[in-house]
Amino acid sequence: CAKVDDRAAEGPGPRRLEQRMSLKVRALLVMVIGVVMGLSLSIGGGLISDTQSLDKEELAWEQARLFAEVLERVKRDYVEPLDDAELLESAIRGMVSDLDPHSEYLDASEYRNIRISTTGSYTGIGIEVDEVGGNVMIVTPIAGSPAARAGIRSGDQIIAVDGIAVEAAHLQDTISRLRGHAGSKVEVTVLRGNDAIDYGLRRQIIRMASVHKEFLAPSYGYIRVSQFSENTARELSRAVDELQDANEGMLQGLVLDLRNNPGGVLDAAVDVADLFLNSGVIVTADGRSIDSRFTRSAHRGDILDGASMVVIVNKGSASASEIVAGALQDHNRALVVGTETFGKGLVQTVVPLSKGRAIKLTTSRYYTPSGDSIHEVGIEPDVYIDDTPGFPDLSLSGLLDREADVQLAEAIDHLQARPVMHSNAQ
Fold first, then answer.
1. Contact 330, 370 (CB under 8 A)
2. Which residue of the set 173, 330, 387, 401 is catalytic?
3. Taking phi first (over 0 means left), then psi (-120 to 50 degrees means alpha), and beta for anything else, what does residue 421 get?
4. How far apart are the first and last CA of the chain?
5. What pLDDT was estimated at residue 423?
6. What is the pLDDT of residue 32?
7. Per-residue b/e over 320-335, b at no fewer than 16 CB within 10 Å?
8. Contacts of 61 (CB under 8 A, 6+ apart)
9. What pLDDT is attached to residue 13?
10. Which of 30, 106, 194, 279 has its CA 20 to 30 A from that of 269?
11. pLDDT of residue 389
């Protein structure tokens, strides 16, 4: 149920409001008025008449007064006590998140997580965890990590970190407690069957692989990219080299699997597309600032030397994945198989702030080489094949099911039927 406070219908009036305000809120009012007036006058730019200046000043005072009025009412009447820092952070979050679904304010912890996903490395014990049935479960220990060396297994349930019980509802808190400075120690208690086992581990820098490779058939390779981090292009180039070394010669074809890849670093996507192109535009972007307007083009050198390519995509392929798929499709370098992609044609810039905080702000719209914006539209595949439930298999088992995975089977058929495309490798 809801109760309407009729006393607030007309507002308390300037004098009564200022009399009731706490000193802190009055100080905030002065600060907000200064900021709002400064922004209002600077955004206008150029020559402004006295009348225009007064109008902007009155608007700034009115908006600042409204902000202070709401702040005071929430502090006084909300069911739980709140401090000024909480309220102001919530106001900042609301301001940024209301711009679009992709812009957001990041506190210090959230900013650290963003940096981990973009750099592809962090300091911890090297496990992938998830909430399963109300428990914190280990999906897999990363090869060569402290967890893997100690004998922690996939399917183990984490029940405590440093003797403190974990809760599935606070998964991020558990992840934060597992991370720390390189060389520092952490004790992890896991439940395996009916046995609780304690592991004393020393944290180290963990490199997260975003590229997984496999042979499909003699002279044909398969590479899955799970996300785009700063290391992805180097990982992919190394994976192709390893497949070619094992093949004792150049590959005849490659399947690049971008299904369920949510994107990541734009420059990483550009570098990945550049690996397979000799020339031409990869992506262009347009925004209000100089830095948000740019064109990225390919450099000479196709690591497959023109061998055939098929890219698999689905509705989970977004952002950076769509940049790669769109560039390879528009330059006729690869056949795109699967379903329409997600359709995220916006670029976000992470802007650092004071005290380890940041904002992730939408700054550009990007366009494929053909000049199309794929925002809320997506990439249309050349060959439409519906998703098979459960695929792609992201269990990290390293095994592909070429019969059950219909999209992969279709990609292999087209790959083997297409001649080597030397036209791109001049």
1. yes
2. 330
3. beta
4. 71
5. 44
6. 58
7. bbbbbbbbbbbbebbb
8. 33, 37
9. 43
10. 106
11. 74
Rounded CA separation 300/278 (Å): 4
DSSP string, 313-362: E-TT--THHHHHHHHHHHTTSSEEEES------EEEEEEE-GGG-EEEEE
Regarding pTM above 0.70, the answer is yes
Q: Give yes or no: 319 in active site.
A: yes
C-alpha 284/C-alpha 365 separation (Å) is: 8
What's 7's DSSP letter?
G
Structure tokens at 423: 């036209």
Contacts of 204 (CB under 8 A, 6+ apart): 123, 124, 125, 126, 145, 146, 182, 183
Rounded to whole angstroms, how far apart are CA atoms 227 and 210? 6
The rounded distance, in Å, linking the Cα atoms of 260 and 388 is 13
In angstroms, the CA 416 to CA 335 distance is 12
In this prediction, residue 49 carries a pLDDT of: 57
Question: Could you count the other beta carbons within 10 Å of the beta carbon of residue 342?
Answer: 24
Contact 155, 138 (CB under 8 A): yes
Q: Give the amino acid at 201.
A: L
Is 344 annotated in the active site?
Answer: yes
Catalytic residue, candidates 75, 213, 344, 360:
344
Tell me which residues of the chain have a pLDDT lower than 50: 2-21, 37, 39-45, 47, 394-398, 422-426
User: Is 341 within 8 Å of 315 (Cβ atoms)?
Assistant: yes
Q: Which two tokens stand for residue 292?
A: 């948000």
Q: State the DSSP code for 228.
A: B
CB 414 within 8 A of CB 348: no
